[in-house]
Amino acid sequence: MVAPAAQPVDLHGDGEVQASTAARRAAQGRVRSAVNGALVIDTDGGVDDVLACLTAEHSHPRTLVTTVGGNVSAAQAAQNIAQFTALPVAVGVDPPDRVPGYRHGTDGVNGCSDGVRRRVDEDAVGVLRGALQDPRTTVAALGPLTNVAAAAGTLAPGDLRARVLALGGIMDCPPGLQDTNVAADVTAARFTASRIPQFTWLGLRDAAERTRTPLTTVAASGAAELARAVAQRTAAAWGTVWGGQDAAFYDVAVVCAALGVTDAAAVRGAVSAALDAVSV
């Protein structure tokens, strides 16, 4: 497993990471000083989110992560990414009236959370605010767009110069497949798509096709325990199209597209590499 981002810290009874003001500000400074020209991944911390972050970690030297509530709370999402990667992580906000679906288990990683609380930054919206002003930066939005909308809403339209690529859209998808990212915060999705000039959706059909991975590959990988349930669920969802033997890891396609990689063979190779980078 990839080394954790920071040493564990003590908790108070509410389960939140507690750090001194000085330590928190230092962490914020490290994250923000690296924003310009970076790849910023805004994620809700599920299984394919972890694989996507691992892909970026090994492909882009300046990758930052912000977390939003979706699969799990923004706070838990941050802990998931900090457990499986060494990337800088900043906690964001949960969508209004969020109702977690726990499609990736109650911890977001199919029961593979180690329970260790790691120190993370606390100002994802601030990180995104800086990122959105830099034309060299790309934001890959893997979850609800609550954080991105909050950051964009504080800036004049002319200051929104970054490229934003988000997972969303179910055109040509099998019946019953839900656009959970958009549904989790419809207002944020509409606002962000209309507000940011360089905003692009990557539909679930395209993301699925690019990341199509045999269940046998998942089972033989280091991430078998982590990814098994999600792989089986997505294989069932795409069963009418693929026959039920291949999984989809949508978020890896978004990060690959943000890195300029859209060829299906290359993206599937990235999925396989990320699966093998995990040990649980």
From TrEMBL:
> Which ranges carry the Inosine/uridine-preferring nucleoside hydrolase domain?
39-260
Q: Which GO terms describe its biological process?
A: purine nucleoside catabolic process
UniProtKB keywords: Glycosidase, Hydrolase
GO terms for cellular component: cytosol
The question of whether Lipid metabolism is a record keyword is answered with no
Molecular functions per Gene Ontology: purine nucleosidase activity
| Coiled coil ranges | none
Q: Does the keyword Hydrolase apply?
A: yes
List the InterPro entries hit by this protein, alphabetically. Inosine/uridine_hydrolase_dom, IUNH, Ribo_hydro-like
| Region Disordered, annotated ranges | 1-22
Spell out the protein name for this chain: Inosine/uridine-preferring nucleoside hydrolase domain-containing protein
Gene source species: Corynebacterium nuruki
Kindly list the organism's lineage. Answer: Bacteria, Bacillati, Actinomycetota, Actinomycetes, Mycobacteriales
